[in-house]
TrEMBL record:
<protein>
    <submittedName>
        <fullName>Peptidase E</fullName>
    </submittedName>
</protein>
<keyword id="KW-0645">Protease</keyword>
<dbReference type="Pfam" id="PF03575">
    <property type="entry name" value="Peptidase_S51"/>
</dbReference>
<keyword id="KW-0720">Serine protease</keyword>
<keyword id="KW-0378">Hydrolase</keyword>
<dbReference type="InterPro" id="IPR005320">
    <property type="entry name" value="Peptidase_S51"/>
</dbReference>
<dbReference type="InterPro" id="IPR029062">
    <property type="entry name" value="Class_I_gatase-like"/>
</dbReference>
<dbReference type="GO" id="GO:0008236">
    <property type="term" value="F:serine-type peptidase activity"/>
</dbReference>
<dbReference type="GO" id="GO:0006508">
    <property type="term" value="P:proteolysis"/>
</dbReference>
<comment type="similarity">
    <text>Belongs to the peptidase S51 family.</text>
</comment>
Length: 230
């Protein structure tokens, strides 16, 4: 059974109620008529309005949406996640999310579900969490490289074209060889992985892409991933 991760660079229901094209794409990967999808809004401290936006989109799509809160009375996490077809991780503070997840044993639960074939997806914090490391602004006023779950080998940077500090920071850490390469995902784009390998870029806003960035002959190379426009 193939294992899928869809990492979104920015946008979707968390920012505005749009065409829901990326949300529909994620559900379609399950090949199930009415897939079960669970939202994890941990990175915002289970923000109520974020949860409402999730349901305002997914209740209008052919699926069974649920969510898990870790800051109120919490359901049986393992049992619930293992019975899902899709998990969607919201954006927010990645460092805080991973710290809370660690206490709940969430990474082990998600890894077990992923290996079972549950589709993993998410935006921003919910995109970088799947990688060995991610570029985040979770604390202080500067970007940092944060160790993450390591489901996918490598480093990921979301919001690549949306925040002015992202491009120079990626260039810096590659040039200084802090990382060998960086998968950089623009807002309005998602990178779909199958079995840990990049499969295709999925653009849900016009001309948005994902790139593999690396150093070659002391020059930064920016290779776009092929894909489709929704």
């Amino acid at each position: 059974m193939s294992k899928h991760i869809i990492a979104i660079g920015g946008g979707g229901f968390g920012r505005k109620l749009s065409s829901s094209s990326i949300e529909k794409y994620i559900l379609s990967i399950s090949n199930i008529d009415c897939p079960r999808i669970c939202f994890l809004p941990t990175a915002t401290g289970d923000n109520d309005s974020y949860i409402v936006r999730f349901y305002s989109v997914f209740t209008h799509l052919k699926c069974i949406p649920t969510h898990i809160e870790l800051f109120k009375r919490t359901i049986d996490i393992s049992d619930h996640i293992m019975n899902q077809d899709v998990v969607f991780v919201g954006g927010g503070n990645t460092k805080s999310m991973l710290a809370v997840w660690s206490d709940w044993g969430m990474s082990e639960i998600l890894k077990k579900a992923y290996n079972k074939g549950v589709i993993m997806s998410g935006v921003s914090a919910g995109a970088i969490c799947w990688f060995t490391s991610g570029i985040t602004d979770s604390w202080d006023k500067q970007l940092r490289i944060l160790p993450c779950l390591d489901f996918i080998k490598g480093t990921c940077c979301p919001h690549y074209d949306e925040e002015p500090s992202r491009i120079p920071f990626v260039n810096k850490v590659i040039t200084e060889k802090e990382v060998n390469s960086c998968i950089s995902i623009e807002g309005g784009a998602a990178l779909h992985f199958i079995d840990g390998n990049p499969y295709k870029n999925v653009s849900f806003e016009k001309n948005k892409n994902s790139y593999n960035m690396f150093l070659e002959n002391n020059e930064i190379i920016k290779c776009p991933y092929p894909g489709l426009q929704l």
